[in-house]
Amino acid sequence: MQFCPTLGHVKVVPIWSAGACSQPAARLAKWFVKRDALYVCVDVELSNEVARRFYARYGAEDLKPHWMVWKDVRTVLGKAR
What are 51-67's pLDDT values in tens digits? Predict the structure, then answer.
C-alpha cells in the first residue's frame, strides 16, 4: 500500500499574475522533499478550473476525479522560476 501525503486547504484565486506563486510553490515542494515525501496528492474539486490549472502548471497530473498528483514533487522546483 502506498501512502500519499495530501495537500489540502490551499486557496487558489484567479487574481494571481503569472509567476506570482512560483516562490510559495517551490517552498512547499522543498518542505515535502526535505521529508522524503516525493509522491504528493492534492484534493481539488473538478469544478475549480483555476486551482486545477495552477497545480498542472507546476506538474501535477490527474489521478482520480477529485485528485491530482505529483509523482515526484521535485518537478515543481524545475517549473517554479
Answer: 898 899 999 999 999 89
Residue 51 included in any domain = yes
Residue 27 has a CB neighbour count (10 Å cut-off) of 11
Residue at 51: amino acid letter:
A
Closest CA to 21 of 8, 6, 10, 7: 10
Is residue 56 domain-resident?
yes
Distance CA 35, CA 56 (A): 22
Is 5 a member of any domain? no
Q: For residues 25 and 41, is the Cβ–Cβ distance under 8 A? A: no
Task: Give the rounded percent of residues in the chain with a pLDDT score beyond 70.
Answer: 72
Structural domain count of the chain = 1
